[in-house]
């Protein structure tokens, strides 16, 4: 700007002002303005510059904890009413799909928005779909019965979701969240679904490992 305007008389005052503002900024904190806005707005952000060097495992962080149930969808035994009730009672962004309540081998993962849209379109477009219609996430033909027509939703099912085992080190899990941009990962043991780890769970765990209060992490 000085070269363009030729106003060399203001070089020294502006240099002094820039240095003073730099010293004041460093005294108040070295966090950048964008990092500060991320914290103020409560965005779940994992900084790639921070290192995670603790020895915890995925089983220590996953949800749900012991004596709690995980919200899942079965591949061929839940009705439209059952799934709509699950959507109303929970606020998850997605749901694991398992073989059955007793045999919780992982089949895939379905997003909440895709599920809502598919159910709404089915009720509006497809004839014979009622609240008692079975929702099928497999390509196998369902057993014929006298009930309403089943609703096949395999096309919205992610059959290859990102998974880790319960013995995976959290250092690896955190690295996966940073590099792959994950919102959640499923935790399994020999193919059986155990739980889910979300980015918010990871951030709370990082705070806890750094001897900070995990409840200070606010998500808007």
TrEMBL record:
Is ATP-binding set as a keyword in this record?
no
Classification lineage? Eukaryota, Metazoa, Ecdysozoa, Arthropoda, Hexapoda
Q: Does this entry carry the keyword Transport?
A: yes
Q: Which GO terms describe its cellular component?
A: early endosome; endosome membrane; Golgi apparatus; plasma membrane; synaptic vesicle
**Matches recorded under PROSITE patterns:** CBS
Q: Which Pfam families match?
A: CBS
Compartment(s) where it occurs, according to its Swiss-Prot or TrEMBL record: Endosome membrane
Task: Recite the UniProt keywords alphabetically.
Answer: CBS domain, Ion transport, Transport
Q: Where is the CBS domain?
A: 62-125, 157-214
Q: Which CDD domains match?
A: CBS_pair_voltage-gated_CLC_euk_bac
Provide the GO MF annotations for this entry: voltage-gated chloride channel activity
Give the protein's recorded name.
CBS domain-containing protein
- What domain of life? Eukaryota
User: InterPro entries in the record, alphabetically?
Assistant: CBS_dom (IPR000644), CBS_dom_sf (IPR046342), Cl-channel_core (IPR014743)
SMART domains per UniProt: CBS
Membrane topology reported for the UniProt record: Multi-pass membrane protein
């Amino acid at each position: 700007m000085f070269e363009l305007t030729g106003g060399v008389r203001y070089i020294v005052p502006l240099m002094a002002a820039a240095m003073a503002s730099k010293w004041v900024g460093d005294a108040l904190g070295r966090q950048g303005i964008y990092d500060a806005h991320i914290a103020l707005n409560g965005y779940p952000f994992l900084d790639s510059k921070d290192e995670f060097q603790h020895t915890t495992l995925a089983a220590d962080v996953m949800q749900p904890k012991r004596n709690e149930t995980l919200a899942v969808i079965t591949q061929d035994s839940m009705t439209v009413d059952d799934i709509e009730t699950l959507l109303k009672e929970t606020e998850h962004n997605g749901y694991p799909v398992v073989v059955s309540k007793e045999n919780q081998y992982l089949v895939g993962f379905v997003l909440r928005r895709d599920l809502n849209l598919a159910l709404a379109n089915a009720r509006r477009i497809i004839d014979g779909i009622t609240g008692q219609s079975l929702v099928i996430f497999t390509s196998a033909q369902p057993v014929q019965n006298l009930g309403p027509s089943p609703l096949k939703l395999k096309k919205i099912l992610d059959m290859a979701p990102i998974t880790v085992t319960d013995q995976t080190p959290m250092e690896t899990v955190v690295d996966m969240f940073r590099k792959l941009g994950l919102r959640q990962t499923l935790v399994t043991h020999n193919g059986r679904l155990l739980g889910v780890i979300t980015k918010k769970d990871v951030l709370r765990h990082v705070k806890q490992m750094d001897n900070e209060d995990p409840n200070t992490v606010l998500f808007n």
